[in-house]
Amino acid sequence: MDLWDTGALGVVETHGLTASIVAVDVMAKAAQVRLIGVRRIGDGIVTVSVVGDMASVTAAVESARLAVTAIGGTVASTVIGRPAVPTAVLRDAGPVEPPTTRPGEQ
Fold first, then answer.
1. Side by side, which strands form the sheet with 74-81?
2. pTM
3. Which domains occur in the chain, in start order?
């Protein structure tokens, strides 16, 4: 599925697993959005990503931000309308590995 078809991408970064669970719960209850990923970034940072129409994603992210801030766990949040990124890139992306050769070498 291409994100061009979904309308918007919402991302909430939290500090800690508990805060990310709160974010997922609140987003699912606040609006009609689809969870596409929960990723542990490192240093206790967890990123929760959802897709849906712009109004639903905005409502979900704002609700999650307020709920997670109340427990002291919000790091950052954003909503991006019609992002040109395939969902698979966000869901399946692993750590970026440096290239083994330089451009032009074989």
1. 34-42, 45-52, 8-15, 74-81
2. 0.76
3. 3-86 (3.30.70.1710)
